[in-house]
């Protein structure tokens, strides 16, 4: 058996998320359907670096799977892309050690979140950016980002529906915000992220940008360890799993 590592992109607009679900269209479901067909009906499971929710996109999701086929990496890529739907694309296939694990071996993940900051919505961007029509102070948002960086218990920024076991301590290596015309891009790099964590953080940062909170309020929210103080979880369509780094 060989273990294959794949880096893939997908447009999450018409998926019910990454994880397989009965009678729902998911990334895992589409991938496993193709792989099972390639393995003559033998069910072939994939393991992802993490799950993405319905409507969330990926530029650099990573998966692994095991196969009895001996096929060059480039041929794997071509065979998969020929059979996968148009909203999933395999960027790269690599043969890896059989002890490689797409989830547990990840040392850093990077997420981007895009906001259309214009009083007029754009129907062609509605599945790929979050429309936010109110004025924002980008300097204040970046000041707040500095407080998110470092190692903290991010319970306040995690959905109460999270199934993660153990503590909710994570390290954010980088958090920033930049505006180019009407488009705002948030970038977060960290050791790992809790369920809905990026979407909750962006919601709080937009509050800071509107003057509803001060940048230093981030420290108070972290200290509270209570999801109820952080406001709503904003919509998924602006969120992209950008890349996953391995040691």
Unreliable spans: none
CATH structural class of the largest domain: Alpha Beta
Q: How much β-strand is present in the residues?
A: 25-35%
Tell me the total number of β-strands. 10
Reported by name, the CATH topology of the largest domain is: Alpha-Beta Plaits
Rg, Cα atoms, Å: 19 Å
**How much is the average pLDDT?**
96
User: Which descriptor suits the 3D outline?
Assistant: globular
Distance between the termini: 23 Å
Tally of separate helices: 5
Number of domains: 2
Helix content: 10-25%
Order of helices and strands: EHEEHEEEHEEEHHE
Largest sheet: 10 strands, mixed
> What is the SS-derived class?
alpha+beta
CATH architecture of the largest domain: 2-Layer Sandwich
CATH H-level superfamily title of the largest domain: Pseudouridine synthase I, catalytic domain, C-terminal subdomain
Write the SSE topology.
Blueprint (H helix, E strand, L loop, with lengths): L1 E9 L16 H12 L8 E2 L8 E11 L5 H11 L4 E9 L9 E11 L13 E2 L6 H11 L1 E4 L15 E12 L2 E8 L6 H13 L7 H8 L14 E8 L1
Parallel strand pairs: 3-10, 5-6
Antiparallel strand pairs: 1-3, 1-4, 2-3, 5-9, 5-10, 7-8, 8-9
Helix pairs in contact: 3-4
């Amino acid at each position: 058996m060989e273990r294959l590592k794949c880096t893939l992109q997908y447009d999450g607009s018409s998926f019910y998320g990454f994880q397989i679900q009965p009678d729902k269209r998911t990334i895992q479901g589409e991938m496993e359907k193709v792989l099972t067909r390639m393995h003559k009906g033998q069910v072939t499971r994939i393991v992802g670096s993490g799950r993405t929710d319905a409507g969330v996109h990926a530029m650099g999701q990573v998966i692994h799977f095991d196969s009895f086929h001996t096929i060059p990496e480039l041929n794997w890529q071509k065979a998969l892309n020929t059979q996968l739907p148009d909203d999933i694309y395999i960027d790269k296939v690599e043969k890896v050690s059989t002890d490689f694990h797409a989830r547990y071996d990840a040392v850093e993940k990077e997420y981007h979140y895009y906001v259309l900051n214009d009083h007029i919505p754009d129907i062609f961007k509605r599945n790929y950016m979050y429309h936010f029509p109110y004025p924002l102070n980008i300097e204040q948002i970046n000041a707040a980002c500095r407080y998110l960086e470092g190692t903290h218990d991010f319970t306040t920024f995690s959905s109460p529906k999270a199934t993660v076991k153990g503590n909710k301590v994570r390290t954010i290596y980088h958090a920033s915000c930049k505006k180019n015309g009407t488009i705002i891009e948030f970038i977060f790099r960290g050791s790992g992220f809790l369920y809905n964590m990026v979407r909750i953080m962006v919601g709080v940062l937009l509050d800071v940008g509107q003057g509803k909170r001060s940048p230093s309020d981030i420290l108070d929210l972290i200290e509270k360890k209570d999801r109820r103080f952080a406001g709503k979880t904003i919509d998924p369509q602006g969120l992209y799993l950008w890349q996953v780094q391995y040691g």
